[in-house]
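JOB MANIFEST
job_type = single_chain_structure
chain_count = 1
residues = 151
[input]
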Amino acid sequence: MPYEKIMACLDFSEISKKVLEVAGELAHLTDAQVLLIHVVERDVPLLISEGIVLPKPEIEKINEMHSMLEEKARHRLKELAKGAEERWGFEASTQVLLGEPFELILDKADDEKVDLIVVGSHSKKGVKRLLLGSVSEKVAMKARCSVLVVR
C-alpha cells in the first residue's frame, strides 16, 4: 500500500535519527508527504492535580521554560526538515505540540489523515516502563492508521 502522508515523531534522542531515516526512505519510495512532529511534555498539571499549589512566579518560570523548549524544538525540526529536503528531495512540514505525547500524536495523526506513524522505541524496562509506559506502545495500540516502531 503506497503511503500518502507519513508522520515521523521525533524526540531528538539517538533513535530519532533512525525514525527520520525510515520515514525519509519510505516517503522517497512512495512519494508521500511528510510531517515531522515533536511533543514538549507538560508535567506541571501532575503537581496541581496532587493539590500542590505553586506560587505565581514559579508558574511563570515553568511557562517560560516550556516556551523556550518549544522554540528550540521548532528550530531543530526546521533543521531536520531542511536536511530531509536536501537528502530525499521532499519538503517536510513541521509542528511542535505541548502536552501528553501519545494523546497528541494520535490526535495529530487523525487531524492530518496520516497513513503511517513512525515512532522510536527506547526499550524502557522495569519500574520506569511500569510507571511511565511506552509512548510507542500506546500509539501502536490505539492509532487508527498503521504504525511503524523503529528500534
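[summary]
Strands lie at 5-9, 33-40, 93-98, 116-120, 146-150.
The first helix runs from residue 14 to 30.
exit_status = 0
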